[in-house]
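User: I'm designing a mutation panel for long-chain-fatty-acid--CoA ligase and want to avoid disrupting the core. Could you give me a predicted structure to guide residue selection? Please restate the sequence first so the numbering is unambiguous.

Assistant: Good idea. Sequence first, for numbering, then the predicted structure tokens:
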Amino acid sequence: TSGSSGFPKSAMVSESAFRAGFPRWCLPSSIERVTLCYRPLAWAADRDAIITTFLCGGRTGFSTQEPSRLMEELALVRPTHFGAPPSIWNKIYAEFKTSLALVTAQCSPDAIQDEEKRLLEQFSKLIPNRCKSIAIGSAMVSPIVFDFMKRCFTHCSVNESYGITESGGVSYNNIIDSSVQYRLESVPEMGYTIEDKPFSRGELLVKTHQLFSGYMNNPEETRAAFTEDGFFRTGDIVELRTAQYDIRVVDRKKSFFKLSQGQFVSPESLQNIYIQSPFVEQIYIHGDLLSDQVSAVVVPNQKYAQAFALEHQLTNFDMNNPDEKFVDAVLEDLRLIGEKESLRKHEIPSRIIIDFEPFTPQ
């Protein structure tokens, strides 16, 4: 597991903990089950999905692991279930919002609604009709993207799963599994406490049947990962919506940073807001103790950038050195979104870097 920072760590899982990840209903069945494996089997989600599929008597298609071919392979394999991290759903949403912005630039409100329906139907075909459920997991998802998924892929159920390599599955559609022991621990330095109203908030601590034994050859990290009474520190900040089981992941404990005026900022939360800009394909929010406002690195959507250049007669538009008018337009759009979402001044980027090279895991 790589976590959110630092070098990857090897999580040791006992045989009994590993077996606990596969429910008793995993038996051969007449119900068709087909999966697509498109990530390395070191990735627990894909490995467990394959084993579950085989236990149920299903079939698995293996991809070339070329990201650019994923949609093509999805159409070829036609899985009955498909799960993916936010990065993939964000990419689909980015293409949708850009297409919508381009075709509705001069449209009336009624025409915009009609075009949106048409595009939703067009994009829904990315997930084959045989697929009965799709899931998003492995990181915090933007509510905007999740809402888009539910509106677009109406032919299958849309679900949100939450689990960690070290603990296995924890919740599904925000409901903690009844076998999981959990509690919240206040993180006052980030402004989250179990006394918060209307919902208690804090770091989620768990004990599960799938809990790992520790990090290989890393006793320091192992000790830091557990409380004295054996609960695992997930590093995720959640709010407890009801007295039991209903949670929402709202932040990452290790992802926040502090600005010069003492304000703590959660970059993931801001990134999930600014992704709604039609200019934005990907965005990274940055800040440090020398800054009084956040800044951003923006990977623009190329189609939208080219349309902007054409509309504003930027004849020599260079992606390696974007025109100042384009940079200002992106910055202004982020400012308008920040104001619409009632963000504080220091949460709105004062400076941006434009880079058309997409982010990679490296």
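For picking mutation sites, this is relevant: The domain at 257-354 is CATH 3.30.300.30 (GMP Synthetase; Chain A, domain 3). The first helix runs from residue 15 to 19.
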